[in-house]
Automatic annotation (TrEMBL):
<protein>
    <submittedName>
        <fullName>Hfaza2B</fullName>
    </submittedName>
</protein>
<dbReference type="InterPro" id="IPR023213">
    <property type="entry name" value="CAT-like_dom_sf"/>
</dbReference>
Length: 457
């Protein structure tokens, strides 16, 4: 069921099953003031020309309202079963902007200082740090995914470089851009057919690969509660990045496949779960569903939507780097089948049912898993010209992508941007020392350099 106007200026639709599943997982951390898997993107930018000479703070607030107009789902709110969107009048719009957009005036604070302490919000929230030229966008994962969050960041920069006034917009017609659920976009029936039931059973099988998987040693005191999520960013040099990307091209494998194989090596090296060396490494094969969707849902127009899917894959401890990289590359290159897509509703229903009954999907995991958006240049444009002209604008120098983890499971996020290989390792500080995670990154980078025969700094 799509969005419908249940009262004047009040639009509503049911939560999709995938949204319900991810929301349930995230909401469990709310009592501690956290939100598992919440997504944070940070864009660092500089202004030039006429845009630099203007008063930037009103422009940031105007851009934030323009972003809502183009992507109204950032201002929808979730109940237990439904999503609601209220078309704002002038007062409500200004109140929403004041509640969700924050200017950090303390010049001693960076985005890195800010992010670990971000709290859950009913909406997408934005934070502007004028002294560092950073803009932070924070959202619950049920509302979007990694590619979508970066598309929203890009849309904000487009709005910031625009000379359009949010007060002149046709507020009241933005509801046509509210995002539908993935189940609706894929036109999946509410009652699963035998074909869908069979496809779902196949999708669920990969979850069994978690059993026997290795993990990192962690603080096991039963009284320990999750703390802050820390992020360790590693940006490889231009020369090293160029060499890695060139070697991958020569070998005919995706850079993501090479990174994944080296992450497996780092997990095996750091594991204490299988001292006899028999445990395998299970990780997640994540895919954006956007390339598989019909127009316009395959585009940035629906950035604020959860259009993602995944399954599990394992590699053995005695497999070589080349064997693991080849296996991952075959899986990434193969992409997703029709059977995977038609199972999205029923899969989420059954997983969510298991979560509701047991509170978890299985034994706690402590490996470093992987997530990627691969080519960031396809999602975040480097230069935006003010008003469409050339007399001024903004340049995006860098961005980062991370997520909150309130569990023992950690995540490596990989992407490339402006020709650089970028890694961001996120972990919960209650369970791991920073030195351990730095060691994981060192081992990963060493494995990658050795396998691809890349030297230098």
């Amino acid at each position: 069921m799509s969005w419908s106007e249940i009262q004047p200026r009040h639009w509503q639709r049911p939560l999709g099953e995938n949204e319900r599943m991810i929301k349930w997982i995230g909401d469990r951390s709310h009592p501690a003031g956290r939100e598992h898997w919440s997504i944070t993107v940070i864009g660092t930018f500089t202004l030039w020309g006429s845009l630099k000479d203007s008063n930037i703070l009103p422009k940031v607030r105007n851009a934030w309202k323009l972003l809502r107009f183009q992507h109204p789902s950032i201002a929808s709110t979730a109940g237990t079963d439904v999503l609601d969107y209220l078309i704002p009048d002038h007062t409500a719009l200004e109140q929403w902007a004041s509640e969700t957009l924050h200017v950090i005036s303390d010049a001693t604070i960076t985005a890195g200082d800010l992010v670990p302490d971000l709290k859950p919000s009913p909406y997408v929230t934005g934070y502007f740090l004028p002294h560092t030229g950073e803009f932070v966008l924070h959202t619950a994962h049920w509302r979007t995914d990694g590619p979508g969050a970066l598309q929203l960041l890009n849309a904000f920069f487009v709005a910031l470089a625009s000379d359009e006034d949010s007060a002149t917009l046709a507020w009241g017609e933005e509801h046509v851009r509210l995002a539908p659920s993935i189940e609706e976009v894929l036109e999946l029936p509410e009652k699963a057919t035998p074909e869908i039931q069979a496809a779902t059973a196949e999708c669920l099988k990969s979850g069994a690969l978690v059993a026997g998987s290795i993990g990192l040693p962690f603080r096991a005191d039963p009284d320990i509660r999750p703390g802050r999520t820390n992020m360790i960013r590693r940006r490889l040099s231009e020369a090293t990045s160029n060499a890695i990307l060139a070697r991958c091209k020569e070998r005919g494998i995706k850079p993501l496949s090479a990174i994944h194989a080296s992450l497996a090596a780092a997990n095996f090296a750091g594991s204490a779960s299988s001292p006899d060396g028999t445990g395998h490494y299970t990780s997640t094969m994540r895919f954006s569903l956007r390339p598989y969707l019909r127009k316009p849902f395959d585009s940035a127009q629906y950035a604020s939507a959860l259009y993602t899917g995944s399954y599990m894959a394992k590699v053995a401890p005695d497999s070589s780097w080349e064997e693991n990289a080849t296996q991952y590359d075959k899986l990434y290159t193969a992409g997703l089948s029709r059977e995977f897509l038609i199972a999205r509703r029923q899969f989420a229903l059954q997983v969510n049912g298991l979560l509701q009954r047991t509170g978890q999907l299985g034994p706690p995991r402590s490996e470093v898993d992987i997530s990627s958006i691969e080519d960031g240049d396809k999602l975040v444009t480097q230069v935006h010209y003010f008003g469409g002209g050339r007399e001024g604008g903004l340049e995006v120098l860098d961005f980062s992508l991370g997520l909150e983890s309130t569990s023992k499971e950690s995540y490596l996020v990989f992407w490339t941007y402006r020709g650089r290989v970028e890694l961001n390792l996120v972990y919960n500080e209650a369970f791991y020392d920073q030195a351990v995670m730095v060691g994981i990154l060192d081992t990963l980078e060493g494995s990658l350099r050795k396998a691809l025969q890349v030297e230098g700094s």
